[in-house]
UniProtKB/TrEMBL annotation:
One GO-annotated biological process of the protein: methylation
Name of the protein in question: Class I SAM-dependent methyltransferase
Residue ranges annotated for the Methyltransferase domain, each copy included: 181-291
One Pfam family this sequence matches: WHD_Rv2258c
Keywords attached to this entry: Methyltransferase, Transferase
Domain S-adenosylmethionine-dependent methyltransferase Rv2258c-like winged HTH as annotated: residue spans: 33-107
GO molecular function, one term: methyltransferase activity
PANTHER family, alphabetized: METHYLTRANSFERASE TYPE 11, S-ADENOSYLMETHIONINE-DEPENDENT METHYLTRANSFERASE RV2258C
Source taxonomy: Bacteria, Pseudomonadati, Pseudomonadota, Alphaproteobacteria, Hyphomicrobiales
InterPro entries per record: Methyltranfer_dom, SAM-binding_MTase, SAM-dependent_MTases_sf, WH-like_DNA-bd_sf, WH_DNA-bd_sf, WHD_Rv2258c
Domain of life (superkingdom): Bacteria
Protein species of origin: Devosia albogilva
CDD domains membership: AdoMet_MTases (cd02440)
Amino acid sequence: MQTAEAAVRHDVSFDEGKAKAFAGQMLGTINGAAVALMASIGHRTGLFDHLARHSPATSAALAAVAGLNERYVREWLAVMTTARIVDYTPADRSYTLPPEHAAFLTRDGAMKNLAVIAQFVAVVGALEDEVVDRFRHGGGLCYHHYDRFHEVMAEASHQSIVKPFVDQVLPIVPGLRQRLEDGIDVVDLGCGAGRAVLMLAQRFPRSRFVGLDLCADAFSETQQEAARIGVGNLVFRQQDLAAVDRLGAFDLVLAFDAVHDQKSPLDVLRKARQALRRDGLMLMVEFGGSSRLEQNLTHPIGSFLYMMSVMHCMPVSLGQGGEALGTMWGVELAETMLRDAGFGEVQVSRLPHDPFNAYFVAR
């Protein structure tokens, strides 16, 4: 009897070149996953920052300035060297982080710090057993299952949304900056750690801000910081958006990468529309992929975003009994839902500083 292996080997449709190319692709993927995990450690320990400032450096010198164990640092450097992230000079056993790489890997680099994003791989990877169980039996997870998720999300959002918000995001809506200067009421739905709304409260002291989130522990540190530094125009409230009938009355509703995680995204959007005063608007930021899979085949981080959907966004929605739209619900569906929620005008913008998100202005 012919074995399955022999059948494949003699199958005229089996392309050995294609098979070998795919094996190389998968090995590259495995290497990439390893590098992502080590990049996360490099960020958390400050190794990228120290190496950028002290290149070239031996493993001993780098460990000393970073206050870390030399043996672990040396092996980490081996990963970074074989990944072509760090340059190695055998003659004096020194390591250099090129400035072009440091720009994308350090806290004070000129570009977005991609090592921040790498942290998500480890954060959601720790839930592999739980997610495998959900594959088999269904159901979801809760935010408290994800250690450090709010912390990492806050750090990532700071780069793409919080830091450039005033100068690069607000201009999407002519006159909005002046309205904030004069004083309006603003609510941030699913505020997470609340760094964006704290920044706005400090920048626009005449306006009044409310941060709402399902998890009080997400914004607790920011809430304490706001009280400590005397920010009196900001309040945080723990709130299940699915359980409240009305949000109140506001001139501006914000939602940063939060709507797709909700139990009922359309219901939240309807409540946002009902909360708007005359001449009010909603500013929503979501990942700018397409609702159609075939349109995401060339997305530069498409696989990563779908992975985050499987490992986080779908489970936390299902954990609330929700619809599990997923991270890549897409611009098309988001725009349709905004209109179904009662918004008569929806504007979608892409901004040069942020190639991955779409910015929706709805009235």
